[in-house]
Amino acid sequence: MSIYIKKSDFDTIAAHAAAELPNEACGLIAGRLDGEDRFIEKVYLLSNPDRSPEHFSIDPKEQLSAIKDMRQNGFVPLGNFHSHPSTPARPSEEDIRLAHDPKASYLILSLSEKEPVLKAFRIADTKVTQDSIKFIL
Hints:
By secondary structure, this protein is an alpha/beta fold.
């Protein structure tokens, strides 16, 4: 499976993550499915009420608002994203433990390198599968 994301959406996620430093940033992704492939059409930048560099949660009111917007625009919820301010772009033990939707894409943006690194995962019963990310115009 591949995740297709516009470079502008990647830049938006990276800017959101940088603005939230030293804490983790988070949000939702929505779009369309084409077979096994997922095309991100909209990124929802949400706040992290935990305000922590080591974990995040999503504000329920913001999540509901994003879901309503997805429905109004005919988008499918694809998953979520969050940043790792100082660790690599791979799921932490907590990320794996809290991943409850095996159909969701979990995007992690690491800010620990010179340039932001974005990776995508699916997590089912603690089994982690990495998906490829393809940038589109």
